[in-house]
Design goal:
This protein is α+β, with helices and mostly antiparallel strands. It contains 3 helices and 4 strands.
Length: about 80
């Protein structure tokens, strides 16, 4: 599973990145986590408000820091 955190380096973006890493450790398995800071790449996803969370190329969340349970639910949803 490819997980991308979209954001230019703000505190919320860094917080979401850390939460995603914790969620991945909790659920286990192999997951590629990538931090996307290039504004042009972020705009390709039509994301206006960061942080953004993209799972396997699909935008799952924008503009807020999800909690660990929300991230786990989104990742588990993607594996169904």
């Amino acid at each position: 599973m490819k997980i991308e955190i979209l954001g230019t380096g703000c505190a919320k973006c860094k917080a979401l990145e850390e939460i995603v890493k914790q969620a991945v450790m909790k659920i286990g398995g192999f997951h590629q986590i990538e931090k996307v800071e290039d504004i042009m790449k972020i705009m390709e996803y039509n994301v206006i408000s960061t942080p953004g969370l993209v799972v396997n190329g699909v935008v799952k969340s924008t503009g807020k820091v999800l909690n660990i349970d929300e991230v786990i639910a989104l990742l588990k949803e993607e594996t169904k």
